[in-house]
Amino acid sequence: MTIHRIRLLGDPVLRARSEPITKPRSTAVRVILDDMRETLRDWQARFGTGRGIAAPQIGAPVRMVYCELDQPWALINPEIVDIGNQDFEVWDDCFSFPNLLVRVSRAHRLRVRYQDTKGEWHEDDLEGDRAELIQHELDHLDGVLAVDRPHGLDPFCLREEWHRLHGPDGRYGPPEDRSTSYATPLPGLL
């Protein structure tokens, strides 16, 4: 297991479309997955943040995402197969541009299809901050970053200034919507 340096905005691997994984049970997949887990946990230990990481962020241009929410969750060849018709705003941050936040609009609900490390297919319905996280990570697999999806007026903010203005509880939506972990969905914007 290796802790990798996170690839930063400007690194060409972040802009490449990742290749599908043909052998989910392979040793190579297990090694990449272990490295993603260790790199995410190292980031969490050093900075106290981070829920997920995409393989391109450690330099592996393959379609794999690793998240730590209630439990560890590996998604191989993930794809969104259904998306709700309501969106919400979120101040998105990313390991690949750690000092910048970008206001984006994300679907409030979605269904994701993926393989596990045994090669078995699964589908999960997600909403709110979990749906936002998966959209963010799957964008990485297509070479898309949050900086490509700015929403609204003045959608960029340096982290230090953002914390001064919004505090730790303001990531999801405008201040009046901070009563929940994510903003009330906005009418469909797509």
Briefly say what this structure is.
The protein is an alpha+beta fold and 190 residues long. It has helices spanning 27-47, 129-141, 159-166; strands spanning 52-54, 64-68, 72-83, 86-92, 100-107, 109-115, 121-127, 156-158, 186-187. The protein has one domain (12-187): Peptide Deformylase, CATH 3.90.45.10.
Structure overview:
A 5-stranded antiparallel beta sheet has the order 1-2-3-6-7. By secondary structure, it is an alpha+beta fold. 22% of the residues lie in helices and 28% in strands. It is built from 3 helices and 9 strands; from the N terminus they run αβββββββαβαβ. The protein has a single domain, classed as Alpha-Beta Complex (Peptide Deformylase).
Named CATH architecture: Alpha-Beta Complex
Largest sheet: 5 strands, antiparallel
Task: Please give the domain count.
Answer: 1
Number of helices: 3
Terminal CA distance reads: 41 Å
Total count of strands: 9
Strand order of the largest sheet: 1-2-3-6-7
At the fourth level of CATH, the homologous superfamily is: Peptide deformylase
The amount of beta strand, in percent, is 25-35%
Give me the Rg, rounded. Answer: 16 Å
- How are helices and strands ordered from N to C? HEEEEEEEHEHE
List low-pLDDT spans. Answer: 174-190
| Structural class assignment | alpha+beta
- What is the overall shape? globular
CATH topology-level fold name: Peptide Deformylase
Assign the CATH class.
Alpha Beta
Helix content: 10-25%
Q: What does the average pLDDT come to?
A: 89
